[in-house]
Amino acid sequence: MAFIDYYKILGIDKSATTAEIKKAYRKLARKHHPDVNPNDKAAEKKFKEINEANEVLSDKEKRKKYDKYGKDWQHGEAQEQAQRQYQSQRQYQQQGSGNFGGGDFGGGDFSDFFESMFGSAAGRAGGRSAGFRGQDFNAELQLDLKDVYETHKRVLTVNGKNIRLTIPAGVEHGQVIKINGKGGPGSNGGPHGDLLIQFNIVNNTKFKRDGSHLYATETIDLYTAILGGEVTVDTFDGKVKLKVKPETQSGTKVKLKGKGFPVYKKADQFGDLFITYEIAMPTDLSAKEKELFTELKNLKS
Q1: This prediction's pTM
Q2: Domain 208-283 maps to which CATH number in 2.60.260.20, 2.30.30.30, 3.30.420.40, 1.20.140.10?
Q3: Nearest to residue 236, comparing CAs of 200, 261, 264, 208?
Q4: What is the pLDDT of residues 29-43, one digit of tens each?
Q5: How many CB atoms are closer than 10 A to CB 277?
């Protein structure tokens, strides 16, 4: 396997901070994303390399191993550990223990670390190496807030493969979901890695979202605020009419129960919508209106 310089791929120095790695990855991922470059094999290959580089360098432990072992970063430490474990078992056998007849090291005699990397069958197979799990892939999917108001299906292209994905309603910005077995292929018969998808939710609505609750501001005129009345306000899925109490103050909040955002993976459950009233002061008053306001002022005093 040819050595891949992940630092070079992301255009960063080896001393780059986590924030610098994340910034470089996002910039390049947007530029080379298959959705932006349809049917462009070069961009597709570059996008794959960018994801691989980010997968390794954004993870503190993986980056440490990569810096130490280079192209063999995934297996270098495991192979060293396995060799030490094997030599230790062989030494014990040669000292006449007799518990490992024929070199068949029972799975329970190996450390959890060895079994997690090679499988408990590795020792029982007379030292034959088991497969290594494939690399996890990272991908970022950008959606509008309106897109995640309802559960829907998408087709995501990763490394040239189309993956059908069900996106649950209520998914959060920055949330990561895992698709098992859709990462890189394993080696020596090992299982595939996983695909980790991070959601970038863009909010182009008038609503502010906090979990499953939504917040919005509604402007009402002075006369409705003083005398009371009815206003029509927007919710995320339509309009509703609200009654405004007389003498409503600016900054008054009202709650519309169940008119917020879907609760993630909880069918038919929604948060609430909180409306804050702002009062619009009248402008361009006529002489008569000013006279009436003066009379009102005198009455109050």
Answers
A1: 0.56
A2: 2.60.260.20
A3: 261
A4: 888 888 788 888 888
A5: 21
